[in-house]
Amino acid sequence: MIVDCHTHVMWYPDHLADQYVDEALQSKLVKLKRSGGEAYAARLDRHSYDSKPEDHWKASETADKVVVFGLQAKASGIWVPNELIADYVKEHPEKLEGWASVDPTEPDCVEQLEHCVNDLGLRGLKLGPVYQHFDPQDRKHWPLFKKAEELGLPIMWHQGTTFPSKSRLKWSLPLQLEDIAMDFPDLKMIIAHLGHPWEIDTIVLIRKCPNLYTDLSAVHYRPWRYWQSMISAMEYGVEHKILLASDFPSGTIDNVINGLRNVNKVVEGTGLPQVPKDVQDMIIYENWKAFFPYWA
Ligand SMILES: [Zn+2]
Question: Ligand 1 center to residue 86 CA distance, Å?
Answer without folding.
Answer: 17
